[in-house]
Each structure stands twice: as structure tokens, then as C-alpha cells.
Amino acid sequence: MNSANKGFSLIELLIASSVGLIAIGVVGSVFLSGYQAANKRSLELLLQQDVNDAFRLIKEDTLRAGFNYNEGKSLRLFKANGVSHADNVIYVTNNCLAYTYMDSDEIQKYNVFYLKDSMIKYKSVSASKKTNEICEMSGASSLLYEKQIGVSNFKIEHKEISSASATSQLIKITLAAHLKNDDSVSTAKSIQIKTRNW
Questions:
Q1: Contacts for 76 with CB less than 8 Å, ≥ 6 apart
Q2: Cα-Cα-Cα-Cα dihedral of 161, 109, 74, 135, to 10°?
Q3: Cβ-count burial of 141 within 10 angstroms (0-12 exposed, 13-18 middle, 19+ buried)?
Q4: Which of 26, 110, 157, 176 has CB 3.0 to 4.6 Å from 188, enough for a Cys bridge?
Q5: Distance CA 95, CA 173 (A)
Q6: Cα-to-chain-centroid distance, residue 108
């Protein structure tokens, strides 16, 4: 027999198959790790976007605190013992921020952001509420996507800023959130808001 007509031996075929399987395994593992990294990055971006949107809403809404459409003086929240003073246009506790304003339809709104059940809740009502009840209102909506995102920290700090003619507040809000099904995807951010004096 002519040696040119011989096929592959069994050993050559096994070696070629093994090299092929190793190459497929390496390519597959690189693809899988790339897919997992891209998936985790998209989840991180989803979380970052939700937190940024929440901060934007809180900041834009809070800047209306005390605004009175008809008059030149600020509206006040009602304290448990009466109407608050100018330094309390915004009511702040460790994890609750509340304020009032009058819109262009001459309706006085009471808005509140607070932490409850590992979620940031938001509520807007048109009936007056006292500050000792405003942070426990029922029927509030979640500010973040509550099926996927949990809040591990929502802290509000404030300090008065006084001048000769007005008193205002500097509010710092810290928020730490994570995905409920993957704690390794998390974020922590903070913002500062200087309240206006209407």
C-alpha cells in the first residue's frame, strides 16, 4: 500500500479533537465572562440611573419649598404645636424631608420623602398635615423601582444658614441602594440642597 493513501490514526484524531475542545472551551469561557461583566455593568447603570433620577426629583421638588404663588412671604408647615418659623420651611428628621408650597392653581401642596421598609417613599397631598404626622402618611409611592432596588441608607442632615435678613437651610441627603437579588451591585451617593427664601 502507498503511504499517501493512509488516513489519520486514532491517536491523531484524539489529539486534534482534544485541541479543538480546549479551544472551544477557552472561547466559550471568555464569551461567558464578557457576557456576565456586561450584564453586571448594565445592572449597575440601571441602579445609578434610578438613584440619579430620585435625587433629581427630590432636589427639584424641594427647591419649591415655601413657595407661595400669591404672596411675597413663605408658606409654613404646621408643627404639632402651631405654625412653624422661617427656619422650618422644610421639616427634616434623620430620614424624612417634608415641605409645603402653593402651586399656580392656588392649591397648597404638602410633599414628603421618607424611608420606610427599605424604600424611599414619596407622597403629595393637598390637605394640611402637621409635621408630627407627615412622615407616616399611608398610600405613598416608592421613589425607586421597589421590585429590584432596596435602600440600605437614607440619611438627611441639615444646618441653618442665617444672614441679617433671612434664614435658610443647607440640606445634605445621603442614599445607599443595592439590587435586591445581587448585593454586589450597589451605589452610594449624596447631594446638597440650599433652600430658597421666598
A1: 66, 83, 84, 85, 86, 88, 89, 100
A2: -40
A3: exposed
A4: 176
A5: 9
A6: 27
Which residue has 421618607 as its cell numbers?
114
Query: Mean pLDDT, to the nearest integer, of 122-146?
Result: 80
- What are the DSSP calls for the chain, one per residue? --GGG----HHHHHHHHHHHHHHHHHHHHHHHHHHHHHHHHHHHHHHHHHHHHHHHHHHHHHTTTT--SSSSS---PEETTEE--GGGSEEEETTEEEEEEE-TTS-EEEEEEEEETTEEEEEEESS--BHHHHTT-SSPEESS-TTTEEEEEEEEEEEEEE-SS-EEEEEEEEEEEEETTEEEEEEEEEEEEEPP--
Q: Give me the pLDDT at residue 93, please.
A: 82
Rounded to 5°, angle at Cα 198 from 67 and 81:
70
Q: pLDDT tens, 7-65? A: 678 888 888 888 889 989 888 888 888 888 888 888 889 899 999 999 999 998 888 88
Place of cell 408658606: 75
> Amino acid identity, residue 80?
A
Phi, psi of 47 (to 5 degrees): -65, -45
Backbone region of residue 10 per phi and psi (left: phi > 0; alpha: psi in -120 to 50; beta: other values)? alpha
